[in-house]
C-alpha cells in the first residue's frame, strides 16, 4: 500500500461546502487502497484577513508574532477537514507544522525547511488514520518558535513531506486543471500539458508561471518526487512533473517547446555611462546585494570605443525598485556613472522547452515571431532550456500569443509538433 | 520586582481598538516596575464563530479536532496583543498553552490542568519581555495533543500560571467593575464588594454568579493566590478575593452577608411515589450518574405513613433534562415509582456570607423576606456559608431584590451592616 500526499490550496477549502468536497475526495483516495497524507492551506482569504488585522494593530509587527498570527489560518482549515473526514466515517487527525516535524530555520516569514521528522504522521498512518497537516508552517530548530515558510509555500511543505515519507506521488490540487502551454486567460487556445520535466517546470516557475512555487519544484527535483498538478473541482488527470526522460527514453512524442510563460512583476534599471573598467560592474552589484535586492536578468552593452563608457541594464522585482535606486544613488561618486533610468512598464516573456537544447532554430523562430508581431525586444537572456525577452508591458499579451502560435502550441495543433530526440 | 499576571477576557480584546487599549494598560503595569505575564481569551465572539464553522462541517466533530480548531482563537488574539505592545516600544512574546507549559489531562473540551511548567515564560520575563499566554488551552501529558479546558477556563489558566510563577497577584479583567452584592441588572442598588473570601466566592460561583469560573477560585484558594477582579475599561479598584481573615483578624467591619446570587440555568425533576425502602434513592442516582448527569440540590420528603411512598426532587442543568428523564424512564420497573414530573420554570436564589455561620437569625430572616414578597419556596439547601432556595423562575428577580434589601445590602446602607465576629 503506497502513500499519497495531497495538497489542497485555499480556493479548494474556501468554505464548508469546499471542505466537504475535498474530504470526499480524500476518502475516495483512501478507499482506493492508499495511505493518505493531506497538506492544507488556510481557507480562502483568511491569511490576507489576518494580515489586515495585524496592520490595524501595528504597521510593522514583529515577524515572530506575525507568524504566530498567520499560522492560525491553517489550524482552522486542517481541523475542519479532519472533522469532515470523520463525518464520512473515516479516522483523521490534524497536525500543525511543528507536530508534523517540519523543522525550519528561524527566519520568520521566509523560513527554510531544514529537515522533516514525520514520526507522528507515520504513526497516524500506521494506525489507519488520514493525517491532515498544516502547510506553510514549521518550527525553528534553534528557538522552537513557530515559523512560516513564505507565501505559497504549502506546495513546498507537501513535496518535502512526500519525500520524507517516501510517498508514491505528491498531488497538488488547485482550481486549475494543470500546467498549460501558456496562461489560458491570455491564450484561450493554450493546451494542458500531460507531463513536463522538473527542469522545465523550474524555468516556468522562475519565469512567472504561478502554478507551482519555485522551491516546491526544486524540492521535487532533488528528491525525484513525482508531482501531479490537478484540479480539485474535477477528476480529470492534470499535469505530471517528472524526471527528464533519459536519452534512450526520449521518443518521437517529446515536444520541443513545453510552453510560454510571462511575468509582469519586474522593473528594469539602466545604469548609463559606466566607465568600462574591471570591477565597475562588481561595485554596482555589490551595492545592490548589500541593500538586499535580488537581480534577475543582466545585460551589459559593448562599450562605445570613443567614450570608453558602457550601459548596464538589469531587471528586479518591481517592489525593490526604490531600494535599488537609492542604493545606486549612494555609490554614484565611487562608480562615476552618468545617470540612472528606471522603467516599470516592462514584461518578461519566456519560451521554455527541454527539447530546444538540441534544436538550433528555436531562438531565431522566437525572435522572428516577435518581429512579425511588431514587438521590440529590450533585453534577452537564455539558459539551455529557456529563452526570455523583456518587452514593453503593453506588448506582453501579443508576444505570448504570437509565440504560442508560432511554435504550434495552439490546442488543435499541439499533437503535431513533435521532436525526434537525438540527444545532444 | 514582583510578577503580576493579568487576564483579559474576550470583550476586552474584541477589536483592534480594544487590543491597543489593553496593550497600553499592560505597558503601564510594566512601567510601574512589575514583570508582567498576560493571559488572553479569544477576541469577542471568535470561539462561537469557530464552533458554528465546525457545525457546518460536522454535527458531532471529533473532540480532538474541535480543540485544534478552537485554539486558533487565542492564537490570533495573543499574537495581536504582542504586536500592539511591540508597537508601544516594549518587548513582548506570545506563547500557546503548550509552549507555556500548561500540561493537562487528555479529556478534550474539558481537560484538567495537571501541572504548569512555565520555563519559557520565566525565560521571557528574565530577558525583560512581557509574556502573552493563550488562555483556555494546554497540551495533554500522554498524547501531546492540543486540549481546551472548557468554556470560561482562561481565568483558571491565569490563576494556575500565577501560582506556578509565584506571582504577587492575578488580575482578572472583564467589562464589569468587580464582584457585586447581586447582579446589578436585577438590583440597581447592588454594591461592589471591596473584598470577598475564597470560600464565599466559591459559593457564589457555584450559585450562578458568572463573574469567575468555579475552578479558577478553587485554584486560587488552593495556592492562596490573591485575585483582583476588575474592569479593563477603568482604572478603579475592583474586588479582591483573599483568604478568610483568621478569628483574630475578624473585625467589626466584616459583614454577615457578602451577596445574593441567582441561577436560571437549572431544571427540577420530581420522582413521585417512590417506595420508601433502603436503596431506592441510590438506584435513582446511580441511573443518573450512569447517564452522566450532574445533580445539584436534592430533597426527599418524609414518607406518608399510610402509603409507605415518598417523593424525591432534585435539580440539574436544564440541558441535561431530557437525558435524565430518559435514564429514569428506563429504570421505572426496577424502582416502581408512580410518575416523573419535569419543571424547567425554576430559579435558584442563594444568600452567601462567611458571617452567617455564627449568626443564627439569617435563615429565618431570609425566609421571612421571601414570604413578605409573596414568594413560595419549592426547595431548600444550605451549607455553612450559603442558603439556597428554589423558586418559580418568574419570582427570581423579586426574590433577589427582596433579599438584597432585607439584609441591608443596598448601596447606601451596606456600611451599616456589620457583624461583631466572635468566632464559632
TrEMBL record, chains A, B:
Its EC number is: 2.7.2.4
Reaction catalysed? L-aspartate + ATP = 4-phospho-L-aspartate + ADP
Keyword list (alphabetical) reads:
Amino-acid biosynthesis, ATP-binding, Diaminopimelate biosynthesis, Kinase, Lysine biosynthesis, Nucleotide-binding, Transferase
GO MF term (any one): ATP binding
Q: Under the cellular component aspect of Gene Ontology, which terms does the record hold? A: cytosol
Q: Which GO terms describe its biological process?
A: diaminopimelate biosynthetic process; homoserine biosynthetic process; lysine biosynthetic process via diaminopimelate; threonine biosynthetic process
On the tree of life, the source organism's domain of life is Bacteria
Report the residue ranges that make up the ACT domain in this protein: 269-354
Tell me if Repeat is a UniProt keyword of this record: no
Q: Which Gene3D superfamilies match?
A: Acetylglutamate kinase-like, VC0802-like
PANTHER family given for it? ASPARTATE KINASE, ASPARTOKINASE
Protein name (record): Aspartokinase
Q: Does the keyword tRNA processing apply?
A: no
Q: Which residues bind ATP?
A: 7-10, 185
Write the lineage as a comma-separated list.
Bacteria, Bacillati, Actinomycetota, Actinomycetes, Propionibacteriales
Offer one Pfam family short name for this entry.
Answer: AA_kinase
Spell out the InterPro entries in the cross-references.
AceGlu_kinase-like_sf, ACT-like_dom_sf, ACT_Aspartokinase, ACT_dom, AKii-LysC-BS, Asp/Glu/Uridylate_kinase, Asp_kin_monofn, Asp_kinase
Q: Which family does it belong to?
A: Belongs to the aspartokinase family.
Species source reads: Nocardioides daphniae
Function statement? Catalyzes the phosphorylation of the beta-carboxyl group of aspartic acid with ATP to yield 4-phospho-L-aspartate, which is involved in the branched biosynthetic pathway leading to the biosynthesis of amino acids lysine, threonine, isoleucine and methionine.
| Record pathway | Amino-acid biosynthesis; L-methionine biosynthesis via de novo pathway; L-homoserine from L-aspartate: step 1/3; Amino-acid biosynthesis; L-threonine biosynthesis; L-threonine from L-aspartate: step 1/5; Amino-acid biosynthesis; L-lysine biosynthesis via DAP pathway; (S)-tetrahydrodipicolinate from L-aspartate: step 1/4
Binding of substrate occurs at 47, 74
